[in-house]
Design brief:
0% strand, mainly alpha
Amino acid sequence: MTNMENFDNYLKEWLRSPENAAAFLNAALEDSEGGEFFIPALKNVAKAWGSLSVLADLSNISKTTIYRTLSRRGNPDFKQLAAILDSMGLRLTVEPISTT
């Protein structure tokens, strides 16, 4: 097994924890302007939770919609995003920006 395969397996295992998945997704949001890293990060988390097909079943969103939503050109609406996150035990939150 190559080092990259070892890393991929480690990352998938690490992302199965809701706490780690939340930290990963929050970092993707913080490190990108306009959230361009968030959808690819969410796709990584979704794959770690099994597959996009499993996620579709858990979130009651069709497979086609899940694949389209999490594609490079995906543009999920709030309801889809909330359902995907909820199926993984996560939720969106809003926090004030630090003014100090």
